[in-house]
Specification:
single chain, mainly alpha, 16 helices
Length: 405
């Protein structure tokens, strides 16, 4: 596969993902502040995150399989339209149940990132896969630079949340238009027909992703997406309420912190990670990054000053930012092309269930035992991730390069 020929499609996919993720980033710093205005507690905020994750986890395998047989482009566009509708609903929510409903619908339509990852894998060779996945990570990072900054700026000191949500909807609609105009389908009509034939002979049912992962010997590997997502979603949930309670932060300050971290993420995943992988290899680099994650989380357990609190967040998230594109790269290599959408849908589902478990456990812990205990729970969870990277990953990778099902 010619890397030169695919540079433009990769760049266009990056731009579409960036537009969508700016919209996603806009609502991140405002949700923890929007919900209490309608009577939500700290645990209710965790439940709002969980509702989105449950719906996303249930639907991600469906979107992945749909993209195999219906095409990546059309599936991506449908998900982007759903995102825009969900932001509009959130903008006009005037009761707590309406926030839950808007976020549930957003979760049901949240197939855009797994489908974009599958499309990126279609466009790249195995050798360049991690670097290409890093570009999607860079889009996520830039979205977390621009989005939270816009969210905090648009909400202002008065805490008006209508305008940020409407702008988020506009960004998703822009991404939808860009996808329709500029992206080309990466799954051939023949491959779509074959996927449709497989669907009829093996109809989708709840739990089919587990069967698929067991059959392809990927269940243990994909569980790392759950662990990764549980830790990261918990950090993102804790940061706004932690800094608000400890340092008096508003949505504007939270947006700035997330924006700085997003810039770090964009630098790492936009180009730095490719060079580091070339030098150290995927799994050795992940091992180093996971140590940084554990150090940052451990610092958060004892942090209390205006310097230590954001520093702990930056160290932990910087370590995590190296891991996700490597996981995506490994996942794309562990399934053949005809099952790539299904594989990326399974990883998306695993990530979504992590966003269920993490905030639920941490939300309960912080409500009853305080912030140090909540951060300590994340330290323990990350040690499983470390164990896999140091004891299992290399052997697992060598024994199963690519699964041909």
């Amino acid at each position: 596969m010619s890397s030169t020929r695919n540079k433009l499609p990769i760049f266009l996919l990056f731009c579409v993902a960036l537009l969508d993720l700016i919209g996603f980033g806009i609502v991140i710093p405002i949700l923890p502040f929007l919900s209490p205005t309608l009577g939500a507690t700290k645990f209710d905020i965790a439940l709002i995150i969980v509702v989105y994750a449950v719906c996303s986890g249930a639907m991600s395998p469906f979107w992945g399989r749909l993209s195999d047989r219906w095409g990546r482009k059309r599936t991506l566009m449908l998900c982007l339209l759903g995102a825009a509708v969900s932001y509009i609903a959130l903008a006009f929510a005037h009761a707590l149940w309406m926030i839950f409903a808007a976020r549930a619908f957003a979760g049901l339509m949240a197939g855009n990132l797994p489908v974009a990852a599958a499309m990126m894998a279609d466009l790249t060779s195995i050798e360049n896969r991690a670097s290409a996945m890093g570009k999607l990570g860079a889009a996520f990072g830039l979205g977390l630079v621009i989005g939270p900054f816009l969210g905090g700026l648009l909400s202002g000191d008065t805490g008006s949340f209508v305008l940020p949500c409407l702008v988020a909807a506009a960004m998703s609609l822009l991404a939808l238009g860009a996808a329709g105009l500029f992206l080309e389908e990466t799954v051939s009509e023949q491959a779509q027909a074959q996927a449709e034939h497989r669907r009829r002979s093996e109809p989708y049912r709840f739990g089919s992703s587990i069967v698929f992962l067991r059959r392809t010997q990927n269940l243990r590997f994909v569980s790392q997406f759950t662990t990764h997502s549980a830790v990261i979603s918990s950090i993102t949930y804790l940061l706004p309420i932690w800094t608000a309670d400890s340092l008096g932060y508003t949505p504007k300050e939270v947006g700035m912190v997330l924006g700085i971290q997003g810039l770090i993420m964009a630098i790492i995943q936009g180009g730095l990670i490719g060079r580091l992988i070339d030098r150290f290899g995927e799994i050795p680099l992940m091992r180093i990054a996971l140590l940084a994650l554990v150090i940052g989380l451990s610092l958060a357990v004892v942090a209390s000053s205006p310097v230590a609190i954001p520093l702990a967040f930056f160290i932990a998230m910087t370590g995590a930012n190296f891991c996700f594109p490597i996981l995506n790269s490994l996942a794309s290599k562990r399934a053949d092309a005809k099952h790539r959408g299904q594989m990326m849908g399974a990883t998306g589902s695993a990530s979504a269930w992590g966003r269920v478990v993490g905030p639920l456990v941490v939300g309960f812990t912080v409500t009853h035992y305080g912030y140090p205990a909540a951060w300590a729970v994340l330290v323990v969870a990350s040690l499983y991730y470390v164990h896999w990277a140091y004891r299992v990953a290399q052997v697992d990778s060598e024994s199963l390069r690519v699964n041909n099902v």
